[in-house]
Amino acid sequence: MSGPQVEAIQLHELACWRVRVAGSELLITQQGAQILSYRQSQSQPPVIWLSPQAAYERGQGVRGGVPVCWPWFGALQGNPQAVQAMVTPGQEAPFHGLVRTLDWQLGEIEEQADSVLLQFSFNSQTQPLAIWPHAAELTLRVRLSAEHLSIELITRNLGTTTLAISQALHTYFAVSDIRQVSIEGLEGCEYVDTLADWQIFEQQGAVDFTGETDRIYQNTPAQLHIVDAAWNRKISLVSRASASAIVWNPWIEKAKRLSQFAYNDWQGMLCIEHANVLKDVQKLVPGAEHCLALEISSGVISG
Ligand code: TA6
Fold this sequence. Notes:
The chain is mainly β. Helix content is 3%, strand content 45%.
């Protein structure tokens, strides 16, 4: 089998790279340093879901993949006051922060015998953000190997004051049928149900899906699994420096209101978004660095 391959391609308006290592394949775009799709083997369905109606246009996020939400997650007003205070008052604050529709800079492409590392960075000193006037460098390191996809989102405070950020790797996973999959590992975790007036509940047993789901889990463990019996697949998610995760499926009605999303796409996708939100917001003193890391791998359900 040939060694790793990296190919620069253009998808409509977006500069992208297609990376192959053994049987695995990754697609990533410079805009937002957004992973668009990931497949661990040509004989398996994709691990990371990309909308069949994806639009590759400048200034617009692509539906699917791993959008980077930074320097806040979700609606700004839904964040702790310390995060809100970083923003210039009176300006329009986009949902999920500022960087998913901006061009990041491709730093290095490091090819090794059994893996490829791509590094993208966004620097608010060279690309100023009027609404967020602080000095920080954001780096996304993506390593593809035959068995794993590793993602590191690193924030470095380049300024002279403390930064308060919330963030997420907003990962869309491909599943056979959301009604037949479950998430293991969140048992006993508290979660905020954003569809029930942000009331707090405790997760009983594995997470399964019977309707629209939009929950912010807190004090989450380092390892979660998506169990997909129909595809005889268990996706392992191992994270570092993240103690919160959002679990989202739009289900039938919200699916109708989503861009780049067919009416039945809700059946084949599941978002588990490893994050630093709410009580897990990160404060970085000048010069400090924080790395939110996630390793994704897929295997058969044993036994
Ligand atoms: O992370 C879950 C969520 O906040 C949902 O409520 C939904 O809005 C989703 O993000 C997608 O947001 P987007 O702006 O990418 O359409």
